[in-house]
Every structure is written in structure tokens, then in C-alpha cells.
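Propose amino acids for all 265 sites.
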């Protein structure tokens, strides 16, 4: 049964990838936005933000990577809401296929889309001066954590996409909660610069954990208080993996349950 579910999921994945191929604007605009963030923060705000021990551009890039895959997960919500609205999910239900194939196919195709965007972002980072300093294996480990986090966020978006009644609502609901989560973190500024009441919230933010894990593995870590304090600053890699596992453990069953209810409407 697991083999059949994987096979059906891959068929749905290919269907979603073909849709992207036919509508290349989806990839183009999901790539342009993070490039704009890189250029704006690096060249407009970079001179005003102090990051001891590391250039701001190297401090910035891990944050942009995590923001990119987190925002990219919003495509999952839009895609599922679109399939529900157009009745495609009902067509899938009429076929002899695994019930989980639609969700696994959707999240897997969005993961592969994230891989492409991350490659483009890596090239952009190298062009503006970002470098990886700690070797090939640690670099690969950082990319693996990044993509795992993006995959976990896709399942949150899947729940959102299956809970709303239109693509327009999914587009708003899929992104609006990302902004405070991303900006209330260490993605763009050190948490030491935040007000005391917000500092612990930012340090325990999943975004902050993944960003710091990438900085550690890539050798882009700032010195002193700019790196953060407490458990999150000392164990970012394990905490990042823990957040990913927790998100998947909560939202995968929720998404599957929502899919069953949504498909039966």
C-alpha cells in the first residue's frame, strides 16, 4: 500500500510540475521576489545594520533563504484551493488512487520548485558577495535542513488551502501570517537589537532557529550578542530539526483530515 501511495503521489507531482512548465510565470515571480529582497536589504539597509564578525550580506543570505522557502510554501495553499474550486479533487476521488496522493504530490512538487528557487538564490548570493566557509558536507546539511523546513511549512499551507473556499482567500491567508513570523526573527537583524519583550519570542521562533542553523553550518555566524542567547543560540541545528518534526507531526494528520472533509463537500 505504501508503494502504491508513493507511486500515485509521484503521478500527482508530475502533473503539478507540468502545470508549472505550462505557466512559467509561477516560477518567475516566485524567484523575482526573493532577489528583490536580497538587493534591497543588501544595498539599501545593509550599511545601517551592524553584524559584528561577519559582513551583513553573509548575515543576510541565510535569512533570505529561509524566508524564500517559507513564502514559497504559500503556493501549496493556492494550488490546493484552486484544485478544490475547479473540481479537480473530485476527479481524483473518482480514480483508483491513494487518498493521500494529492497532498503528497502537491507538497513534493512545491518542494522541487523550492529546490530550483534555492539554486537561483545561491547564485544571486555568490554574486553579491555571500560565501560558504565550512566545507561541502556542512553546506549540504544546511541545504537539507532548509528544504526540510520548506517541506514542513508546505503542510501548514496545505491545511490553510483546504480550509478556505476560494483561491483569493487562500492567497491572502497563505501569506499574511508569514510576515510577522519572518520579520519577528533574526532573519534580517540580530535579535539583540529587538525590545526586551520581543527578544525571547524572536529567539524561539522556528524561523530564527533555521536561520541560525544555516549560519552555523555555512560559517556566516556573527559574534557576541548578535548571535543570540540561551538554548536557541547554542543548539540551533537540533532545535531546527525538532521544529520540523513537530510541524510535520501536527500538520500532516490535520491536512489529511481536512482533505477528507473538503473532498466530501
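Proposal:
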Amino acid at each position: 500500500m505504501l508503494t502504491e501511495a508513493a507511486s500515485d503521489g509521484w503521478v500527482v507531482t508530475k502533473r503539478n510540475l507540468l502545470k508549472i512548465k505550462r505557466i512559467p510565470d509561477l516560477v518567475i515571480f516566485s524567484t523575482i521576489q526573493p532577489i528583490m529582497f536580497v538587493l534591497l536589504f543588501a544595498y539599501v539597509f545593509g550599511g545601517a545594520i551592524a553584524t559584528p564578525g561577519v559582513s551583513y550580506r553573509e548575515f543576510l543570505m541565510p535569512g533570505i533563504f529561509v524566508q524564500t522557502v517559507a513564502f514559497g510554501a504559500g503556493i501549496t495553499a493556492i494550488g490546493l484551493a484552486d484544485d478544490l474550486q475547479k473540481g479537480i479533487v473530485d476527479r481524483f476521488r473518482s480514480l483508483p488512487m491513494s487518498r493521500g496522493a494529492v497532498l503528497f504530490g502537491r507538497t513534493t512538487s512545491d518542494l522541487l520548485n523550492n529546490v530550483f528557487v534555492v539554486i537561483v538564490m545561491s547564485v544571486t548570493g555568490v554574486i553579491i558577495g555571500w560565501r560558504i566557509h565550512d566545507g561541502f558536507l556542512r553546506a549540504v546539511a544546511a541545504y537539507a535542513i532548509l528544504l526540510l523546513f520548506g517541506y514542513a511549512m508546505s503542510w501548514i499551507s496545505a491545511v490553510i488551502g483546504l480550509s478556505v473556499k476560494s483561491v483569493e482567500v487562500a492567497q491572502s491567508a497563505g501569506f499574511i501570517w508569514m510576515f510577522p513570523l519572518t520579520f519577528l526573527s533574526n532573519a534580517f537583524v540580530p535579535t539583540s537589537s529587538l525590545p526586551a519583550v520581543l527578544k525571547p519570542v524572536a529567539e524561539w521562533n522556528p524561523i530564527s532557529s533555521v536561520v541560525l542553523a544555516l549560519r552555523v553550518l555555512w560559517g556566516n555566524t556573527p559574534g557576541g550578542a548578535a548571535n543570540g542567547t540561551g538554548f536557541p543560540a547554542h543548539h540551533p541545528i537540533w532545535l531546527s530539526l525538532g521544529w520540523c518534526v513537530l510541524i510535520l507531526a501536527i500538520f500532516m494528520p490535520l491536512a489529511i483530515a481536512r482533505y477528507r472533509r473538503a473532498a466530501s463537500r
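The first helix runs from residue 2 to 22. The mean pLDDT is 84.
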